[in-house]
Write a structure and sequence with these properties.
about 280 residues; Type 1 dockerin domain; 2 domains
């Protein structure tokens, strides 16, 4: 068989697909909504515009009631079809009822909630404003939770121990990745997470800085590592791999699937583009 330079170049490009891997992209996102769900029989208090949100059980001066955080991020900057590989959350604990280690967990909300203009300077909250989340309301004053205190998954997406003041990172997990993957794929399902602490021990409450806090590094920050899978996914399976390469080769030298540069012919530039997006 006579091998022309063009043939050799073509084979070399295909062979490189075996080990080609897309370099991961990273999105660092600041929360777009955060609030405190304040246990209160009347559902009258919130803290949508506050610099902090609270998690855990307060002491007797606060009637020993519960506080839960509500946290949401905007994923519109991540390309549709992207494959999420890692998710971590960084938050700043700026005060603690005590410095004993308490587990603080993120549990995905299953219904929407709001952030209004109420400005509270402590864990007791302020009178709820329109759209605020409260113990009874997803959106104050008319839309109620099906379950007071919030509707969220029973299983934690990520957890970590929090002691005193400092920056903390909630680690990636399969469930955390699944949460974000679904929120990207279906933006209407992006309700964020409920931040749940020790709800048994008095004064277990931890205070975290919100997006309204003054320091850029203290705001809740979600880091999403992903691989973009754009139009090069010719089979629609969410990956760019051998199946897509086969589709491209079948159309080689003609127009059809794989003509990424739009020149009317599937050729070497299109193959190079596909290999650059390879995800294995």
């Amino acid at each position: 068989m006579i091998r022309t330079p063009q043939h050799v170049a073509f084979v070399t490009l295909i062979a490189s697909a075996v080990c080609a891997v897309v370099s991961a992209d990273t999105a660092v996102l600041t929360s777009v909504a955060d609030n405190t769900i304040i246990e209160d029989a009347a559902g009258a208090y919130s803290g949508g515009g506050a610099q902090y949100f609270f998690v855990g059980r307060v002491g007797v001066n606060g009637s020993s009631l519960l506080r839960r955080g509500a946290l949401r991020f905007d994923f519109s900057s991540i390309p549709a079809g992207a494959i999420v590989t890692s998710v971590t959350l960084r938050m700043n604990c700026s005060a603690a009822g005590h410095t004993a280690a308490e587990t603080v967990s993120l549990k995905r909300f299953t219904a929407s909630w709001g952030e209004g203009a109420s400005v509270a300077f402590g864990g007791g909250g302020a009178p709820a404003q329109p759209n605020d989340v409260t113990w009874l309301h997803r959106h104050y004053p008319s839309t109620l939770w099906a379950t007071p205190g919030g509707e969220f998954a029973a299983t934690a997406s990520s957890s970590r121990s929090v002691t005193g003041v400092g920056l903390y990172v909630w680690p990636t997990s399969a469930q955390f990745v699944t949460d974000v993957q679904q929120m990207i794929a279906t933006p209407a399902s992006n309700f964020g997470w409920c931040v749940v602490g020790n709800e048994v021990t008095l004064q277990s409450v931890k205070r975290f800085d919100s997006r309204e806090s003054g320091g850029a590094t203290s705001k809740p920050q979600l880091t999403v590592v992903y691989t973009a899978v754009p139009r090069f996914d010719l089979t629609g399976d969410g990956k760019v791999n051998a199946a897509d390469l086969a589709v491209l080769i079948a159309a080689w030298g003609a127009t059809g699937p794989g003509d990424f540069d739009g020149d009317g012919v599937v050729g070497a530039p299109d193959l190079s583009a596909l290999l650059a997006a390879w995800t294995l």
